[in-house]
Structures are given as C-alpha cells and as structure tokens.
Amino acid sequence: MTTQTTAPAPTGTAERPARPERPVRPPRAARPNGQWKVDGTTPLNHNEEFKQESDPLAVRERIEQVYAREGFDSIPGDDLHGRFRWWGLYTQRKPGIDGGRTATLEPHELEDRYFMLRVRIDGGALTTDQLRVIAGISTEFGRGTADITDRQNIQLHWVEVESVPEIWRRLEAVGLSTTEACGDVPRVILGSPVAGVAKDELIDPTPVIETIQRRYIGDPSLANLPRKFKSAITGHPSLDVVHEINDVAFVPVVHPELGVGYDLWVGGGLSTAPRLAERLGVFVTQEQVPDVWHGVVQIFRDYGYRRLRNKARLKFLLADWGVERFREVLESEYLGHPLPDGPPAPLPDTPGDHVGVHEQKDGRFYVGVAPAVGRVSGEILAKVADLAEEHGSHRVRLTPYQKLLVLDVEAEKVESLVAGLDALGLQARPSLFRRNTIACTGIEFCKLAIVETKATATSAIASLEERLGDLTNLTPITLNVNGCPNSCARIQTADIGLKGQIVMDDDGNQVPGFQVHLGGGLVSADRGDEGGLGRTVRGLKVTADELPDYVERVVRRFDAERTDGESFAHWAHRTDEEALR
C-alpha cells in the first residue's frame, strides 16, 4: 500500500492537505448507430420496430380487406402513420390549422380523415391512356386535385381509404402503381423526360430504369431501408434529373476507350442538412447500371444509420466514409469486381427543363409546357390527353421541374397543339418567372408546412411578370418556394430559395413569411459552373405579402450591378449582405 505525502508548506502559510486523486473514467462507449452489418438488427427506435414487426408492404392486404370496408377509424397508428407510406398514402392536413401551430400539435391533431395519394411514375413516362386514368381518378375520388411534383410523380388529394382498392385497380389496369411511392424504400426513379427521343441524347436510360423497376421495386429485401432512397438516371447532356441531390445518380459520359456509359454519383440530399452528391469516379456501362444501383441500395440498407431518423440518409454515411471507402465497399462487398475509372460529365450547354418546342431525332417534335408551379387538375389532365391524341401523340412526360411534355408531334401540328395547351394554362413560351418557379404542396395539404406555397408563388409570378417586364435581357432566375425547412422544393439549390416560417411584420404581428436563401443552383447552362448551395443572409426574412417587392428589389439590383455574362448565383455570393436585403 502506497502512502501519499504532502510537501512542506512555505513559511508563514498553513499546510494544505493534498487533494485525493480522482479515478480515471474509462472512455464512454460509442452508442450504436443501428448499422445492420456493424451493430446487428435490433431496433433502436419505434420506426425500426414497426418496420420489423410487420412487412410494411403487407399493409396492402389490410387496406383492401379491412380498412376500406371498416373505414378510417379502424386503422391503427403504425399502419396509418407508417406503413401506409409504402403504398403512397399520407394523411393530409386538416383545413383551418394555421402554420404557427404546426410544430405544437401532434400528428393526429393535424391530420384529416383524407389522404394524399402519390402515383409513382418512373422516368416521368406516361401514355395518354394512363394520363386519362389518373385524370378520372382525380375527378371521381380526389375532388379534381392533381399536382405534378418535382419528383415526376402526380399527387392527388382528398382520397378516402374506402376508395383506395378501386384506385389501385384502375391504375394497375394500365400499368401504373403507387408501390413504394413513399416510405423507407427506393422511391420513384427520376429519368430524362426526353429519353429515347432527343436528338442530342447520348444514351437512352429507359431500358435500365425498366429493369430496376421490374427487379427491385416491391422487393421485400429492399423494403426496410433506414429512410427514403432517391434515384436519378439520364442519358441527356443537359443532365436533366437534378442528379446532385439524389442518393444515387447516373449521368452520361463518353469514355475515351469504353465508349458511352454513365458517371456514378452518390450521397446527395437536401432537407435541413443539405449535401450535394459526389462522384465515385467510376465508369458504368448500360448493362452494369442495375447491379451497381442495387449495390448502392444494399450499402444503404446494411450500413446506413438507423438510430436517429435525422441521420438516416446515405449522405451522412458518405460524409463519414469518404468516396474512396464507399467505392471500395461497393466493389468488393456488393459487386465482386472493380469498376474502371471514368471521366466526369461535361457541363451542360442547354437547360434541363425542356420547355418549348424541340425537334426529335425522328424529325417530329416534342412540346414542353409550364403549368403554374405544377398545379393542374383532373380536368386539365384529361384535356391534355385528348389534345395529344388529336395531334397524333400518345406519349406524355413529366419533368423534375414540375413541367409536362407532349412527344411525337408532326411539324405541321405543333402550333395548333401549343395554342390548345396554352388555353389550358400550360404555356410552351412562358415568362422567365413562370418557367423557373417551383413550389411544394404547402400548408394547403401538408402536415409539416408552415405557410401557403402554391397560391403564393402563382400570385408572385403574375406580379413579377408585370413588374420586371422591362428587363428584356434578364437571365433566367430560379425561384423555389417551400412551406417548411424540409426543402421538397429544393430551396438551397435555387437562385432565390424561400423557406416558409412565421415572421414578424412591420407592425410586430406574426405572419406567414420566408427565410431567404440566395445563390444556390445545380449544374446548368445558365450558371456556367458546377453549382452549389445558396447562402443564408443573416436576419433576411420577408413576409408572404412582401415577396414580390423583395424579389423585384434584389433582381433589379442584380441587373444593375452584374458584369457581362455573370449569373445571379455568382453575383449573390460576391455581393455584401446589405445589397441583398
């Protein structure tokens, strides 16, 4: 036994007893992240519990056999707020609840007895027969609602659970579904809206999208991912599928030795922790895409973080692993072979929204039109189907920019079609703001939203068309309007991104408004660079009523101060904060 001694105290001072030594605490063990291949599959939260208790895809039988017959009150919570998403169903917001109460009420207090139903449309490709069926469902079961989303889906509202089996029957009769349109699954695959028809297309992604859909969508082995998984595939040089914000994306490249194929990107995503995807630096052939896609999904399933929902996206795993480790795990554990190094895709020199009249590779034309922020209706969709067929077309495409294309139009019929679509409010030659504004669902239907978006954005477009009509040389400026921080409308990648929140007006009243993000953007012809996230100006918030005033003010300042060829994004990042207010 050792004895602790005390050194003699200095002269004139009392002797102080020595402090006892504190025991050294062992380092706290790291909490498991819920990575199946590291920590095992024991659920670490309730979301993981309900996914393991019952296969979420199996809820379909209960919807058809029980809930559709016994009604809304028969649906238990884990099905209603969880597993229903695997079949494209969310309860919608109860009318009359203001945005200030969004964060204070429980889900059951916010929700109505009606559902949003998301129709899954991989690659945005529809026949006129399919479009007419969706239109009929909208009219008969959804009070005429229909929104084209920036994920190439169509969303309907006011759907009752009693109607869902009949809706599924009608959709599936024409080759459509709502399978895994929502939920912790591989969601809709974004694809080039001009796949197979564009004159300048490098490679047609249609076969690989169809193969992935056939092999893997609805596969129980991929139906319990840590969270949602977003995919994008394009063969068009405009890179028209917003690849930088998807979990996995394939964009076209020409390898100097191996020919045309794809450049692989992984780990993109926005919401409250935005991160752009990164290149793995590999070249993927057309034939390899489905297996590589499957490998990336399995990495997410097996190594993705499941303990905390706000960390359960692939972007967080990639941030921790880095590109080199991710590539090594993909090649060694999931593919069983290396992939060759590949070049990056060139920067695009044409816009990726495909609005306007464009010649196809077969000499016919496609016409791209802009609804107001994606808002259409069952009636409008039915008339689009009729118009397309009257002009010799049986194919329609949706875009990741809330736009709509009619394919296969003979030259002599183009102007007649353009006029007919314009009469429906679908403009082939829209103003810059009509063309470049998108908006999420907003407080009208969404339980997470804080402010109204669709009507606010539509009103702002009309006002800005009038206010800024004199700026004839104005370059395109994107305006993205979101009802909450979750960025369904990609606010961090817009020139002007608006995040809905309650703000204070000049009289001290709390009113709907927006936090402003400036200078974001994805790879584009207009920017002339590789894009990036917008900046948040400290304290810069505008009320919904002030929105047109603010946009006019900042756009006019940009027009006055920009250098030759300078993009809004570049200007916004170099300008001091006071000039942006």
Automatic annotation (TrEMBL):
Keywords: 4Fe-4S, Heme, Iron, Iron-sulfur, Metal-binding, Oxidoreductase, Thioether bond. The keyword Hydrolase does not apply. Residues 1-52 are annotated as: Disordered. The keyword Iron-sulfur applies. Its cofactor is [4Fe-4S] cluster. Catalyzes the reduction of sulfite to sulfide, a step in the biosynthesis of sulfur-containing amino acids and cofactors. Belongs to the nitrite and sulfite reductase 4Fe-4S domain family. This is assimilatory sulfite reductase (ferredoxin).
